[in-house]
């Protein structure tokens, strides 16, 4: 018996259920979102090398102009090494560096922000930055260091190094002839060839990183869903928090039914007639032409409630008319406080006419 209870508790604590929308929203507010940093890194690196490839001629001419200014005009020219001239040289170099790096920096920034936005959306959360004393626990730190997540990160890093190293090695071996011939070429040609080889290496490495980033995204998605999974008990507890405890809700419904029943019973003395089944159903109907366009049901009930309706009607001298079919139809189709539907006007009007005729006859007999 004890074993079966423990197994049941273990099954309830096992996280097998998908995360609810409320759990996902709470996790997002705490900064726990699906995001692959590999996508940001790979696309940023690839974009940087593509931009370098497209602007390589511009960068080359800019560097040549800067070198010409520094060596030909400044160092070999008539410029004196005064503080003013050195400041002017420094400002020129800074301006040239900014002109060269600003497009690259802007592209990298836009790519990084766009990748994060496409993965996460607009999210501002300070909770991940809040200090937690649990992070200072050395035991938890060691467990996290040797956890399966860290092992997978190490495995991914090794795969990344191996694939990128393999691609770069294959490319360099194919360019060995060109590399060995650099000694025989002019400096400008050598710089152009080295720049081209470097750009090709970057583009190939970036392409490999993009491929690995796509795989990493699906892995991160799997891990994210796994972390968000809930146990059956957690789902039950959340349902109680959102919908309320079933026991409390049952008591509230019971209280509401008692209040509505009390109000209904208070309306019975205002009725003109009670239509019965005769034992199972009782419907109290009131007709007030100055208030309603048609007769209205002020109370209805079945079995014990029907008996209470008839008892109150008898105490207040309200006539009761037996009409099995009409009583059943009114009970099934008309709610308390609703007007009689047009298709039942004739039947209810007949009952009310009978009651008014009966009241008139009783009044004449009373006068005699």
Automatic annotation (TrEMBL):
Give compartment(s): Cell membrane
Q: Which domain of life is it from?
A: Bacteria
Please classify the protein's predominant subcellular localization into one broad category: membrane
Q: How does it sit in the bilayer?
A: Multi-pass membrane protein
Q: Where are the transmembrane segments?
A: 45-71, 91-124, 154-173, 193-219
Gene Ontology terms: cellular component = plasma membrane
Q: Which InterPro entries match?
A: FlhB, T3SS_substrate_exporter, T3SS_substrate_exporter_C
Q: Name one GO biological process term.
A: protein secretion
The UniProt keywords, alphabetically, are:
Bacterial flagellum biogenesis, Bacterial flagellum protein export, Cell membrane, Cell projection, Cilium, Flagellum, Membrane, Protein transport, Transmembrane, Transmembrane helix, Transport
Q: Which Gene3D superfamilies match?
A: 6.10.250.2080, secretion proteins EscU
Q: Which family does it belong to?
A: Belongs to the type III secretion exporter family.
User: What is this protein's function?
Assistant: Required for formation of the rod structure in the basal body of the flagellar apparatus. Together with FliI and FliH, may constitute the export apparatus of flagellin.
Write down what this protein is called. Flagellar biosynthetic protein FlhB
- Give the organism, scientific name: Anoxynatronum buryatiense
Gene label: flhB
